[in-house]
Design goal:
single chain, alpha/beta, Rossmann fold, 2 domains, 6-stranded mixed beta sheet, two-stranded antiparallel sheet, 9 helices, 35% helix, 18% strand
Length: 241
């Protein structure tokens, strides 16, 4: 797959297959992580190559609209109406995902319980703290049990307890394909089955978390084997702290 903004190529020759489980997406700023998320979410079509869902190519806007029913996407910055209540915010996501009317109330309540916001269901979005608003965004992404969940920096603004709770949510998403973009390597170590490292739009590593950690040796910066392995993958000029 190839993706570009005018003359600037952001993703080039990327070949990635996602399967059920949690895949962590690591890479420095500008690596192409957000662009990859937006492309997989069908926000923008690829400049070259194909995006396929369950083996079927997403060709054209009509196919993209059908696929979006099965995708939960939380971008780094997401919009919300300040006067909207939390319950209505999540219900709107369920409506967009075409969750049947009869199933929608329970789907919304389940998502709110998963992110520990059930007691805030009638609170207006504008009155939530930044961390609570981020949790409401996670509920937006998972309501209705979509088959593919794309989370772009979802733990930004969460305190340590909320990050632990977020990891619990990931463990509960059984049979779901989750792509988690993050700068927090400890989130990958704790919650992911697989890790993909991007740099300049290309995949530097794609494999198991333990497999990657085994590459980290003591001579590199980092306090954990996974951090050292990440630094080892970067070009030499970027390893200096």
């Amino acid at each position: 797959m190839r993706q570009a903004y005018r003359a600037r190529v952001v993703l080039d020759g990327l070949d990635l297959a996602l399967e059920p489980g949690v895949t962590g997406l690591l890479g420095p700023n500008g690596a192409g992580k957000t662009t990859l998320m937006r492309t997989l979410a069908t926000v923008q079509p690829p400049a070259g190559g194909t995006v396929a869902f369950d083996g079927e190519a997403v060709a054209g806007e009509r196919a993209a609209r059908q696929v979006r029913r099965r995708i939960g996407y939380l971008p780094q910055k997401f919009g919300w109406d300040p006067g909207m209540r939390v319950r209505d915010f999540v219900e709107y996501a369920a409506w967009l995902r075409e969750v049947p009317d009869g199933d929608r109330p329970e789907a919304v309540e389940k998502a709110l319980r998963q992110v520990d916001l059930a007691d805030r269901r009638n609170e207006r979005m504008s009155r939530l703290s930044g961390g609570m608003r981020r949790r409401a965004g996670i509920a937006w992404a998972i309501v209705g049990a979509p088959g593919l969940v794309l989370l772009d920096e979802p733990t930004v603004g969460l305190d340590p307890r909320q990050r632990l709770q977020f990891r619990r949510i990931l463990f509960e998403l059984t049979d779901t394909t989750v792509l988690l973009s993050t700068h927090l390597i400890d989130d990958v170590a704790a919650a992911c089955d697989r890790v993909v490292v991007l740099h300049s739009g290309r995949v530097l590593f794609d494999g198991g978390v333990e497999e990657m950690a085994a590459r980290g040796h003591d001579g590199l910066p980092g306090s954990t084997p996974l951090e050292r392995a990440y630094m080892e993958l970067l070009p030499e000029e970027e390893r200096q702290l």
